[in-house]
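Hey,
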Amino acid sequence: MKQLLMHGHGELLQTAVLEDGRLIEFYMERSENSGLVGNVYKGRVVNVLPGMQAAFVDIGLSKNAFLYIDDLLHPHLEKQAAQKPAIQQLVRPGQELIVQVMKEPLGGKGARVTTHFTLPGRWLVYMPAAGYVGVSKRVGKESERTRLRLIGERLLQGEEGIILRTAAEDESEQALAADVEQLRQQWNSISERAAKAPVPSELHREAGLLRRIVRDAMTHAIDEVWIDDSSRHSELQALLREMTPQLEQRLKLYERTPDKPLFEAFGVTEQANADFQRRIRLSSGGLLIWEETEALTVIDVNTGKFTGDNDLEDTVFKANMEAADEIARLLAVRDVGGIIIIDFIDMEDEGNRERVMSRMSEWAKRDRTKCAVLGWTRLGLLELTRKKARENATQQLTVRCEACGGSGKITVGIG
C-alpha cells in the first residue's frame, strides 16, 4: 500500500509518502509561488570570471545568479567542441541572456542558472534545443524503451529534444504528442515574451507545489491520496481531472480533528521526529550519526547494541546492509543534496564491500532525485552525490541554536 499525504496550513504545504506505513519521502513548501527552480528569466551578464570559467547574471533577485561554462555549451555532449572554449568567448559583460534557474539560492550564494532549458510535462520533459531523445532509466523493459524512443524521434521538430519520463510507460503516442505540443507552445510564448521584455524580468514561472505533485508524484503506484485542506482538495481534484483523470477516485479529504491530525493518524509525525535526529537507531540496535553542512553530509555507521552472532565479519556486514537500506530511505525523507560520505563499519572481505556498494547503487536507481554512487575512497569511505536544487527539509524544519551557533557545542573554561 502506497499513500500520498498532504497537510496544508496557511501558505505551508507538507507532503509525505508512505509505503506500507513507512515514511519514504517528505517535502514541504511555504508558498505556492516561493520556489525559483524552473523559472526562466531575461537577465544581463554583470561580470565574467575567466579563472572560474563562470559568469554572474543579474536576473532581478537580491543576489546575482551564477552561470558555469558547462551550462552555456550545447546541451548535447556529442555536439560540443572537443576543446572547451574560454568563458569570455561565449559571454561578455552587458550581454542580455535568457537563463533558467536550476538551483535555489542557498546560504549566501545566489541561484545557479543554465541555458539548457527544460519544460517538464506529465509524460515527458521538453528541451527546445537539445537535439536528442532520452528515456528514463526506470523504464525497465527494452521493448518499451525502444517504442518510446521511436515515438520521441517522430515527435521532434528541428533542434528539439525530449526525455520520456517513467510515467510515459505504456502511454499512447497521441497522449505523448499532446504533451509535446503543449510544451512547445509554452516555449514559443516564453520566446515571444523574451523579445519584448525589459532586463531583468521573469519570463516563466514553474508550476506551484500542487501541480508539481500531480505531475511528478501521482502515478498508478499511488493507491491513496489524502489531503486535510478543503480548499486545496478542490484545487487538487481539478488538477487530477485535467492531468490524470483515472486517478481522481483515489483522492480523499481527511476531516481534521484537534486530537487526531492527518500526520499523527498515519504515524508521519512520530516517524519524522525520529528521522530528523542527529542520532538514528536502527531496528537491530545499530546506530547512525548524521552530520550535515551546506555542501557535505557525513554519515557514520556504528554497531551500537547490535552484537550479531559469533562471526565478526558477518556481524559487521549485516549491520552495514541494514544501514545502507536505512540511509537510502533517509536521504529521500530528508531530501539531502550535494556530496554524501558514508563511513560504514570496516569490512575485511572485499566481496562484502562490493555487496554493500551494490545495495546503495540499487537504491540510487530508484531515487526520484538524481543520485549517483561514486565508489569507495582510499580511506574506505563510500562517496555519493545527490542532486541539490532546493532547501532541504532539515533546513526548513530546524533553526540554528542561539547558544552554540549550530555547532552542538558550547565553549567553556576559557579565561
